[in-house]
Design brief:
Blueprint lengths: L2 H31 L25 H8 L3 H33 L2 H13 L8 H10 L8 H21 L4 H9 L4 H12 L1 H17 L2 H6 L8 H6 L10 H35 L2
Helix pairs in contact: 1-12, 2-12, 3-4, 3-6, 3-9, 4-6, 6-9, 6-12, 7-8, 9-12
Length: 280
């Protein structure tokens, strides 16, 4: 290996390390402040490690969980994320398979409409969306997954379409010759092959839905249903007071599940994105 190449790799490692620290440091700051007393989280002390005077133990976590009906918010976030992602994966994978195999004008038009939806700003449709959700009774945690399907279909269809193009059609023809129906062929032959794309798409979609604040705030009845991002905002009291300790603790609780899911499945993200964007 040449000296110039070694220097280039060393510089790349240094740059990536700095970027890694820049991304991790805000999370570390939230973590250390979640262990401090609320009175110690000030402008001057916010970046300091907890001391014997400022350390609060797990009291902020206990207060965060017991107040604001946080466990209920955790359930709503979990149910909305799982139901939305399952619906997106199921519907969009079948739609992508149909688009690739049928190749009709209607199928191509639907594909380009999905791609177009990715570039439409949410702010353009949010007021109309809120009104439509109220009329169709989608303003509850059990039906909001239909709205997420509409907004998540663009990316999912795009990734699945690219991956389906790489699947040999002869495998499906052999299954149909053996007596499989189109539905059986999809779930027994196509879906298992699409596993990398399915997992990577599911991770990207669940990260979006789990952390989404704006859409649930616009659609849901905030007096009855609150997801975790919505509940965190209610730690702001009257006259500008904020229970910073409990808020920081709830933020940590919020990000732990999604970080665990990402770390466990991160290898599928790159594999699935490359397969969906390059193959075919």
């Amino acid at each position: 290996m040449s000296i110039g190449k070694k220097k280039g790799e060393s510089i790349a490692v240094i740059i990536l390390s700095v970027l890694c620290v820049a991304y991790v440091y805000p999370i570390f700051t939230i973590l250390i402040n979640s262990l401090k007393k609320n009175s110690s989280i000030t402008t001057s002390d916010v970046f300091r490690l907890p001391t014997a005077v400022s350390f609060s133990g797990i009291s902020n976590y206990v207060e965060g969980i017991t107040s604001m009906n946080f466990l209920s918010s955790l359930w709503y976030s979990f149910f909305i994320s799982v139901s939305s992602v399952v619906l997106i994966i199921l519907c969009c994978s079948m739609a992508a398979w149909y688009i690739v195999r049928v190749k009709s004008v209607a199928a191509n038009t639907f594909f380009y409409l999905c791609i177009f939806s990715m570039v439409v700003p949410f702010q353009m449709v949010m007021f109309t969306l809120a009104n439509t959700a109220d009329r169709l009774h989608l303003n509850n945690p059990y039906n909001i997954c239909i709205i997420y399907l509409g907004f998540g279909a663009g990316l999912a269809v795009f990734m699945f379409t690219g991956f389906v193009k790489s699947i040999p059609v002869e495998m499906e023809e052999a299954a149909m010759i053996d007596g499989s129906s189109p539905v059986q062929t999809f779930f027994r032959v196509v879906m298992p092959i699409m596993k990398p794309s399915v997992v990577s798409t599911a991770i990207l979609e669940v990260m979006w839905v789990w952390n989404d604040y704006l859409l649930p705030t616009l659609v849901l009845d905030i007096k009855r249903y609150r997801t975790i991002p919505m509940a965190i905002q209610y730690f702001r009291g009257s006259y500008g007071t904020v229970n910073m300790g409990a808020m920081m603790a709830c933020i940590i609780i919020d990000i732990i599940p999604i970080i665990v899911v990402y770390l466990v499945s991160q290898k599928y993200i790159v594999e699935g994105v490359l397969a969906g964007a390059v193959k075919g």
